[in-house]
Specification:
- 31% of the residues lie in helices and 40% in strands.
- The protein has 100 residues and is α+β, with helices and mostly antiparallel strands.
- The longest helix is centred in the last third of the chain and has 16 residues.
- The two termini are 17 Å apart.
- The relative contact order is 0.17.
Length: 100
Amino acid sequence: NKDISAEWKYTCGKEWSCQVRKKKKTICWIGISKKKSFGIGFPFGIKIEPIILQSNLPERIKNEFMNATSYSSTSYISVEVEDSKDFENVKKLIDLKTNN
């Protein structure tokens, strides 16, 4: 998709991070550290709360969203991707982010 862009940076001498955007809207942040996994953080506005709570995401992800500290009406859901089950949750979060 030509509307999707990715910008990679090496942060604090510790890890690579990538900001993925659709036009000007941040879809997610990807962090790659020296571990054998990587993390993805998704910013969501508080307006999406009912959609997340009614989704088929695991309860632990819903709870993370509900208990996250909000910054400028935005809360983050982070997923440590270690296996295909985690990746399925990432795909669901991307769908939520791009369709709402």
